[in-house]
Amino acid sequence: MEDPAPASRAAALPAEGRCGYFVEKKRRFCRMVAAAGRRFCGEHAGAAEEENARKRILCPLDPKHTVYEDQLAKHLKKCNSREKPKPDFFIQDINAGLKDEMEIPEQLVPFSSLSEEQLENLIKKLRKASEGLNSTLEDHIMSHPALNDALNDPKNGDCAIKHLKQQVDGKHRKNNSVFERLQIDIQHLCLNRIPVLQEGRLPVVGIGKHLCGVATDLALRCLVETYAASFEERNEEPLAKRVKNDKTEKESNIPSEEGNEKNIQEMWTPVAGVVIALCCHHRCDWRHYVGKEYFKALGLGAVDFYYFQRMSSWATCGMRRTSLEASDITTKRKDDQNYDNEEHDDGGDRLTDGSTDGMPGILTAEEKKNIGHLCKLLIDQGRLQYLQQKGFNPALQYYTDPSVSLENVLLTAIPAHLSLQEATHK
User: Fold this and answer.
1) What is the signed CA dihedral for 413, 416, 421, 426, rounded to 10 degrees?
2) In the prediction, which pLDDT does 390 show?
3) What is the value of pTM for the model shown?
4) Where does this protein have compositionally biased stretches of type Basic and acidic residues (predicted)?
5) Pick from 424, 406, 412, 174: nearest CA to 312
6) How high is the pLDDT of residue 135?
7) Are 19 and 29 in contact (CB under 8 A)?
8) CA 213 to CA 309: how far, in whole Å?
9) What's the mean pLDDT in 306-314?
């Protein structure tokens, strides 16, 4: 039985109030709103007879949209792509790290051009460097009470529940909470210049939901170097600590219930904790990576890092199902994959069953997956050591099931002295 022929252009009409321009490629009318009394939207106004005298050109700030040529000067003043004044908390490359032009060769051999011998040597290096690392992480899967009603709603199927778990942001906000959104690249963000933090000199907790690749390193440096260092440089006791110290002094005359119990002085830190959902290690960058010293101590350098970050994509890309499973994909699984890709690009070097992207077929799909996980673990280990050197007690753990997200590793860190106090009180 033949498929029904698509509706002809003559038989279809644009929706009321919508543009009358027929988009040949999509076989439908444009769905943009047309101005009152106009037949076409702004993008397709040139197609209208009454608009033929006016010419539309590409916006020089963003060629993704057009503008009337005779209104260009006016448009440039309000275009969303125009360069805006930099806020006080913008400092160019403050969290970028040091750039060593000599560390990375200008011409790196493309990953797909590596020989079998070169690939084997890389894998040997990886396995040697990762010897002794704990690849078995603790499961610490939690669920916020704000989600309970939605998760228990019988109307929500598996896909909806999975999506709810991925999009939990904002569902647990308190009515009296204050939120402020800063539109700035983390690379240039100076936290101690943000008014609310500057005025109150408050401790911060860094929370990141899937800070892809390099963004994790930029965020760590922003927190534990830029913000924390600002208090050390000024030798300033933060307001939160002074308030607590005043209270402690007033209570110091109250006798302890146990005479022999020693009071442990509570130390304050500008950064009270870090919680980051890790992902997209193939988007890391050697210049910004905080674990350079860790790699160098293992005899590894920028070139090794480049290939390891590319291989890290083997852990999640191109091996989600075997060829047998792929022949029986259901609509549900397609929806699942769409949710997986909402926040992450596949990137890296995509591998399909038993084959590589231009690479010799010397590894099975399972071996490639394990190697990808080793690459991720090694990169994350450098981050752990960096945090330890900065006075934190860091850890990696699984925060959700792989069926919800293949990128399911959480990086947490709290100041080491707080960990010590907690252990002392137990």
Assistant:
1) 60
2) 93
3) 0.69
4) 240-252
5) 406
6) 80
7) yes
8) 9
9) 94
The one-letter amino acid at 140:
H
How many residues are present in the chain? 426
Q: Above pLDDT 70, what percent of the chain?
A: 67
Q: Which residues pair with 396 in a beta bridge?
A: 411
The DSSP string of 305-369 is: HHHHHHHGGGGTSS-SS-HHHHTT--HHHHHHHHHHTSS----S----TT--SSS-S-S-HHHHH
Supply the DSSP symbol for 268: P
Per-residue CA distances from 320 to 216, 377, 402 (Å): 25, 20, 11
pLDDT at position 235 is 58
> With left for phi above 0 and alpha for psi between -120 and 50, is residue 168 left, alpha or beta?
alpha
Q: Which two tokens stand for residue 15?
A: 């929706």
Q: Which residue bears the tokens 């005479």?
A: 259
289: number of Cβ within 10 Å = 23
Greater confidence, 86 or 244? Answer: 86
The structure tokens listed for 220 are: 């760590």
Name which residue leads in pLDDT, 343 or 300.
Answer: 300
Using alpha carbons only, give the angle 378, 316, 357 rounded to the nearest 5 degrees.
95
In 3-state terms the chain splits into helix, strand, coil percentages (rounded to 5) of: 40, 10, 50
Q: Which two tokens stand for residue 423?
A: 């252990």
CB 305 within 8 A of CB 286: yes
Q: Which residue has the tokens 């009454």?
A: 50
- For residue 266, give both structure tokens: 């509570």
270 three-class SS: coil
pLDDT at 21: 84
CA dist 37 and 32 (Å) reads: 14
For residues 307 and 105, is the Cβ–Cβ distance under 8 A? no
CA distance 222 to 229: 10
Report DSSP state, residue 227.
Answer: I
Let me know: does 386 contact 291? Beta carbons within 8 Å. yes
Cβ–Cβ contacts within 10 Å for residue 282, how many? Answer: 27
- At 422 the pLDDT is 61
Name the burial class of residue 107, with classes exposed (0-12), middle (13-18) and buried (19+) by CB atoms within 10 angstroms of its CB. exposed
pLDDT in tens, 14-30: 888 888 888 888 888 88
CA separation, residue 284 to residues 68, 139, 190, 217 (Å): 41, 25, 21, 8
Q: Computed over its alpha carbons, how large is the radius of gyration of the chain?
A: 28
